Amino acid sequence: MIKSFFTNRIWSRLMVAVFALLVAVGFGTAVNAIHSWGPYHWARTANPFTLKLGDNVPLAWDTYLTTASSDWSLSSVLDTSVVAGGTRPKTCRPTAGRVEVCAAKYGNNGWLGLAQIWITGGEHITKGAVKLNDTYFSKPAYNTSAWKSLVMCQEVGHTFGLDHQDENFSNPNLGTCMDYTSDPDGPPSNEHPNAHDFEQLELIYAHLDSITTVSATAPSKKNGRNQSFNFELPDTTDPDELREWGRVVRRDARNRASLYERDLGRGEKVLTHVLWAE
């Protein structure tokens, strides 16, 4: 059993490395083959595991959260369940062992939605947060079923460790919510996951861990006091000024910062994926 555990772990990481190499050297068949954030995943001792999604959204968003939960639960390695929210939507403070999904008017700061994951030990996700900016979703351009479906699905997908399949808004739709687009309802529609997303989840969660970070109840502690690492969002459209999110790790095809990383010390960090309004 121990041999099998390590064999599976090594094999899954070898596959990731091979696919990444193929993408780097430009093999056409490998384009979008790997779209994970890196080694980040929820630690768990068995598959499938169930991840709770805290409902901190108004009634108008409930259908989109329920649909995203049902869509992602089609995965063979994970299920999600929508549960009562554990935070205020405006602050959207994370809860250990689960994902808090929030919607509020966060202001004219340039972004439609974002996803954050908290990491310990270099790879294990301990908590996640999704924020949907109703300042923009209340405007006609984004107050549509297609846009709300895409952004909800994409940001929730990020909290599993998934990255985008494509970050060029001008490319044809790939038929997945993990694809940047200017036309989410297509055709093809980018409102739901596709088969490739589920294949990627199988790669991410191919190995098992000896510990679990899912459904934990105790938040991180420092100096004997509970710490909930969360950051106020500056009212700016300049991504380089968003220092609360840390250093810029990657930019999208329009040269806008799309991924940030902040070192929290003591082996912890937080990553923030940002989807900017057009």
Structure write-up:
The chain has helices at residues 2-25, 59-72, 134-137, 145-158, 195-204, and strands at residues 41-42, 49-56, 78-84, 99-104, 111-120, 124-133, 221-222, 225-226, 247-251, 257-265, 268-276. With 278 residues, it is of the alpha/beta class. The protein has 2 domains: 1-34; 39-276, Collagenase (Catalytic Domain) (3-Layer(aba) Sandwich). Strands 1, 2, 3, 4, 5, 6, 9, 10 and 11 form a 9-stranded mixed β-sheet that branches. A two-stranded antiparallel sheet has the order 7-8. A hairpin with a 2-residue loop joins strand 10 and strand 11. The protein starts with a helix and ends with a strand. The model is unreliable at 1-31 and 218-241 (pLDDT under 50). Residues 216-230 have a biased composition (Polar residues). This is Peptidase M10 metallopeptidase domain-containing protein. GO terms for molecular function: metallopeptidase activity.
What's the arrangement of secondary structure elements?
Layout: H1 2-25, E1 41-42, E2 49-56, H2 59-72, E3 78-84, E4 99-104, E5 111-120, E6 124-133, H3 134-137, H4 145-158, H5 195-204, E7 221-222, E8 225-226, E9 247-251, E10 257-265, E11 268-276
Parallel strand pairs: 1-6, 2-3, 2-4, 4-6
Antiparallel strand pairs: 5-6, 5-11, 7-8, 9-10, 10-11
Q: Which structural category do the helix and sheet elements fall into?
A: alpha/beta
Give the C-level CATH assignment of the largest domain: Alpha Beta
Residue runs with pLDDT of under 50 for 5 or more positions = 1-31, 218-241
Any idea what the radius of gyration is?
18 Å
Estimate the mean pLDDT confidence. Answer: 84
Give the percentage of residues in beta strands.
25-35%
The largest β sheet comes out as: 9 strands, mixed
The name of the CATH superfamily of the largest domain reads Collagenase (Catalytic Domain)
- The topology string of helices and strands comes to HEEHEEEEHHHEEEEE
- The CATH architecture of the largest domain would be 3-Layer(aba) Sandwich
Q: Alpha-carbon distance between the termini?
A: 51 Å
Quick one: overall form?
globular
Q: How many E strands?
A: 11
Biased composition (Polar residues): 216-230
GO molecular function: metallopeptidase activity
Protein name: Peptidase M10 metallopeptidase domain-containing protein
Region (Disordered): 216-237
